Amino acid sequence: MSAFQLQALVVGYESPLLTANLSIESGTAAILGPSGTGKSTLLATVLGSHPAMSGSIVINGTDVTQMPIHQRSIGMVFQDPLLFPHLTVSQNVMYGLRRNGLNKTDSLKRALELLQWVGMQGFESRSPQELSGGQAQRVALARALAPNPAVLLLDEPYSSLDAELRNRLATEVADLLNERDVLAIHVTHDQSEACRITDAVYRVEHERLVAVAN
Amino acid sequence: MWVFPALFLCIALGLPLAGVLRNSLSDISAVDFSPQFGIAVTAGGQALISTIGALLIGLPIAGILATYRFRGRGFVQALVTVPFVLPTVVIALAFRELFGSLLSPGLALVVIAHIYINLAVVVRIVGATWQQLDPRMVVAARSLGASPWRAFLTVTLPQLKAVLASAASIVFVFCFTSLGVVLVLGNGGTRTLETQILRQTSLLLDFPTAAITALLQLIVVSIALLLGARASMNATQNARNLRFTRLSVIRGIRARTYVFLVAIAACIFVILPLISLASGSLRDSHGWTLQWWQSLTELDAGTTRLGSPLTAVVTSVKYAVITGFIAGVIGVLAAMSVLSHRLGRAILVIALAPLGISAATLGLGFMLAYGRPPLDLRGADLLIPLAHSIVAVPLVIAVVLPTLRSTDQRFAVAASSLGARPTRAFFTAYGPILRIVAFAAAGLAACVSLGEFGAASFLARSSSPTTPVQIVKLLQRPGDQSFGVACALAVILVLITLTLVAAIDALSRKRWVKV
Amino acid sequence: MFSSVFKKIAVLSAASSLALLAACGSSQEQAGPAAVTLLTHDSFVVSEALVAQLKKETGITLKITTAGDAGAMLAGAVLAAGSPSADVMFGVDNTLLAKATNADVFSAYTSKNLDLVSPALKTDTGNGVVTPIDYGDVCINIDDAWFRKRNVAVPTSIDQLTQPAYKDLLVVQDPATSSPGLAFMLATQAKFGDQWLSYWKQLEANGVQVSGSWTDAYESAFSASGGTRPLVVSYATSPPAEIVYAANPKPKKPSTSVLTDGCYRQIEFAGVLRGTQNEGAAQQVVDWLLSPAVQADLPLSMFVFPARANTPLPEVFTKFATKVPNPLQLPATVVDANLKTWLNQWDEVMNR
What is the predicted ipTM? Predict the structure, then answer.
């Protein structure tokens, strides 16, 4: 039994955009393809912010297709960091921990660990407005991983950064995810990035997900 | 840039008020403060309850309108605005018709009517900011384990804190200074400082006490507005986070049900009292009839001798257009100076101050300042729109400010760095937005003018009353006809307003601008 | 950087607004000696034909401006006493007359036709500054059908209103915010003297309802208009107004009647404002208000009785308007001296 499975999952709005069959045990899978092919819609459907047309999403043996977002145990890093502007950096990371029942002291402790892990120690009490794009995206990663989600979704997380920073951050994050053995799905349109940092690569072809030999 | 709005305020507001003060502060030693103080406290309590109620009911409506795209959204948004621009006397009457024996006049009815009227303020002002919050922020919170309700409390609400404070301060001021609603629905027992001012000026002619009461009212109002302005200026610092985001499609059965229920409840709440007006226009003592509508075009409406009711509609529309122009220009200029001047907060408070000045005082002041040589504007078509503009400018500012704030100044910088002259740069950046938002704001000002009664009753020529004045005159006479024709006129006013607001919304739904 | 732009916009709009202002100012007719401004309250109505006739006969162009209700109008006039914004004021009644005369609002003139006014109406002309133009009585109106249906006897005096048979049947107006409400309070003062407060205490105990305005009391609370209370403070001329403003086909007779006890007489006056530049023309307008044509027009315009004796009344008045035999009235100076105290006492007794 795989850790993460998409079984004939059909995503789309009025009409189907994409049918996905996918099974991942561990590591990072990349989904490649030009924009408009339904990649982002697929992630939204997996996350639960958009309803599936048919098929199912199974995580660790549980069918989560009809579950509300907050019960799915899926983390997400968006194209923009989307840090909560009214909270400090550490409060942002603590947010998911607090929602999962951790008390204030423990969640602060864990948040500081995570911030150190993403290389953002010393920024704990800053406001998100004071961070650069790359810094904010690191915090967003820490925040998404804090509650230990079963799956992490990354939706072109570096697309708003300049090329040099993008490459550096992509490699760093890939290493971090490897180190923690996080099961992640990474959507991108950058083929080289996909091949460099991920274990398996899928491509959208003719409204289907097709595995690409690595 | 701030010179012109300031000049306008001085001429249109300062001069009349100075006249009232000069004429009334002759003998202040004999004034007894204490009763006014007690009334201020009671009125403050009433205003607080009304404000909380308007926020609680207005928030869900603002939320669905700011978040989702759905069929009938434009209608709901326009409908919710209607109560705000209806003459308070008409609303009060509709409520009496609706609740009849169910709820006798008193505090409860006053509070419900205040909530009804101010729903638009909450929905419009809070909605303008809410619409600029990134909906993905909530999705992010949800993915971190927050339930929808939790995500609202911990992510959406904190980001709305500033705008809630500013909306609350405006609603508070409206309820604190309420006159028409309190007179008709207050059972004589619920009083505000405004009703006291009325009693002191037009019954006891005790001007020193009236001036002191007006001053006390102005102090409370200023404090409320200052608190609101402080909060909303703090929001400016966060404004860079705000960006225009598209409305999203409703997903999932639960969201669908929620949006449906809120929209339906909002419509029912707003429409019910209006239905009692419509049915009043279609009934006489014998049953259903069209005769009130048929008599609208008659010179005399039978025997009312007030001139044809439709003439009043024409007069109102004319004044509304002029008011829209004046208040639109002044309001936009004032909003721009609030943003760019280092004394922004102070300017904002002064520009909003007209909210707290009683219509009766304003009317009296206008009469004194402009009613006699050398500046005898009385009967001129400009006087009423001028007074209406004073009432409308604060709302224009409230509409324009959030949009201007969220417009990134970097556009202008970019444009000028490419070699454009500052003028060109300005218009490249602000031109399209400004044009649309100015139209929208002017439209709102026109709506305010359509429904304004207090100042118009002081300044109208008896041969050409505005529609609200005409309605009230009709309601001051016995007989089925007076009531029926008044209801028909009220329905026309509702329809014009609804059309105008819907047009504004359609205009502002084009890229960039949210009203 | 943008300030220059803003300045341009500001100057432009300032210029255009000022131009507008100037245009509006100049489009107005110049107030020459033949133009008279009549300041009045917002219930004033006169037929346009009569204004045209005045112009034809005397050359006077009459401009009518309203200034809120009678009290608000007077407030404006008092504040501007001596340098008025109008030439003639109509609509001050016997309740407020002393306020006007104390503030020296009027210049000395009573109409040359004052001798044609019924004697009872001209006992007080503020020492020769105002002319009575019309009068009316504030009385309790009765929804006859309500009493007939329940077989309850219609009250014949206001003393009975404190009896259990009339519990929860009366609606009055707050004297502080409504003119008929004030008149009814003065009526109880005139009728019961020192005992007036105890009368109100009994009314309160008997479930009297207080509305903020005539409109709410009459249009909403009064059972003849769909409310629940069959007794309301209104005017003696409300029943004929019910006929005139009724739906078609007009009923043969009104369904309401008047309780002729406890009625308070209101007399409306006109006077020349002190400081006017058109003394002579202003006096002519006061005379015009008392002329046979205008007097005959008043009943159906404002539902009042003309002050000029022997003015023919319209049929609806002769048939349905109740003549009150002994209306109550208090001297203007007494009202002026005590009004504030009475209002406060009333507030206290009625728990307001």
Answer: 0.92
